Amino acid sequence: MMKIIALVDCDSFFVSCEQKARPEFKNRPVCVLTSVNNKGVVVSRSKEAKALGIKMGAPYFQIKELSDKVVFLPARHDLYDKVSAQVMDVVKLFSPDVEVVSVDEAFIDLTGMNKFYNKSYTEIIKDIRSKVLEEVDIPVSIGLSTSKTLAKLASDMAKKTGGIFVIRPEKITEIVSDIPLNEVSGVGKATAETLLYHDIKTIGDFLKQDLVWIKKEMGLVGERLKFELMGQAINLVNPKEEKPQSIQDTKTFDDFSSDIDFLHSRIGKHVHNTSQKLRMLDGFCHSLSLTLRTKTFQIYEKEIRLDMPTNSERTLLKQAHDLLDILYRKGVLYRSLGVTLKNLQYGQTPQLSLFDSPKVEDDKISHLIDELETKFGKNIVKLG
Q1: How far apart are CA 31 and CA 44, in angstroms?
Q2: Residue 121 pLDDT greater than 60, yes or no
Q3: CA distances from 213 to 15, 182, 195, 198 (A)
Q4: Which CATH fold topology does 247-376 show?
Q5: Helix (H) or strand (E) holding 234
Q6: CB 302 within 8 A of CB 356
Q7: How far apart, in whole angstroms, are the C-alpha atoms of residue 123 and residue 130?
Q8: Residue ranges per structural domain of the chain
Q9: 357-366 residues labelled b (16+ CB within 10 A) or e (exposed)
Q10: pLDDT tens digit string along 56-71?
Q11: Buried b / exposed e along 230-260 (16+ C-beta atoms within 10 A)
């Protein structure tokens, strides 16, 4: 059976979340930055900001003269995660087969749902778009086709055609042939350069190649890509949510700093964010690493193996502070700090090696703080 797959892609997601939270910013030039200072860069733009020529990744110091016209806001990832969950809850109302691929994107397998809803697939994706906007106040673009790769291309086109775009099987060649290969999801820079060496620049050029040649030059990846671009779904929608193998939280400082007390003061939030996410996933970590990035972009990292798997914020905080004391170099200016929980296992009884302690540390105090924050908001309680 031919698959019918849609990609739901939130428009300018971080900006849309900020406009949802602060409606006075709607229909205005808005940029979300990593931080609103001379080291911050643009990570999301409204269409009005794009019209002013502001580029993704533009550093704040290059565009700050537009402050009288543009609203510049620092990123708030806690807000974006919350809104993302609301969007995905609405999308899941339309099909049980939804694969969340990022905070602002999800594939949805709609195969056969036209009979269930007694509507065309185009009408269904219009309903999804309207429902998300009505329930969550977030605009989305939706691309529809018969494979994930084509659905992704269709969603990119949808942003320029009113929010909906369909690539029908009989129209594939007509619609996608002239698209450069480097715009296709899954085609990396090295692959695109290799194909360009053989004068293969567009999807049309690629589809003309013999499958034997493609397998020889690109292996299984190239073979699967050709089938996907021909409209045959090889990569199916996987609704099973895979739990992460590591959890990281990092942030660039507003100003460079060589003050060890300042660095220690920043650790708490990173440990809190990572350990809270770990507890929400019913997980434990065996290792913790701390990363420091200097003003000159040198990276220093140190990892420690824990005595027992844990999700305890107090335990992880102590280990992170110890690692900082080891990594810190007096007089060096640092631009960012990050914490990563590694070697994760899930469930109350992680599988341990013969030489590991049979105990796990499931911190009840940390769980209680999580419940209070869920009910009353972030930072309602802090560890002393």
Answers
A1: 6
A2: yes
A3: 44, 19, 11, 11
A4: Dna Ligase; domain 1 (3.30.1490)
A5: none
A6: no
A7: 11
A8: 5-11+80-229, 13-76, 247-376
A9: eeebbebeeb
A10: 999 998 999 999 999 9
A11: bbbbbbebebeeeeeeebbbebbbeeebeee
Average pLDDT, the chain: 90
**122, burial (CB in 10 Å: exposed 0-12, middle 13-18, buried 19+):** middle
Residue 237 has pLDDT above 50, yes or no: yes
Largest CA distance in the chain: 69
Written as one letter, the residue type at 37 is N
Lookup result for tokens 């660039």: 252
In tens, the pLDDT along 245-294 reads 899 998 888 889 999 999 999 999 999 999 999 998 889 999 999 999 99
CB atoms within 10 A of CB 62: 13
Instruction: Quote the tokens at residue 151.
Output: 């659905």
The two three-digit tokens of residue 133, written as one number: 């906007």
**Residues forming beta bridges with residue 336, ordered by sequence position:** 252, 293
Fold of 5-11+80-229: Alpha-Beta Plaits (3.30.70)
The span from the CA of 268 to the CA of 262, in Å, is 11
Q: Which CATH number fits domain 13-76: 1.10.274.10, 3.55.40.20, 3.40.1170.60, 3.40.30.10?
A: 3.40.1170.60
Who contacts 245 (Cβ-Cβ below 8 Å, separation ≥6)?
A: 342, 344
pTM for the whole thing?
0.76
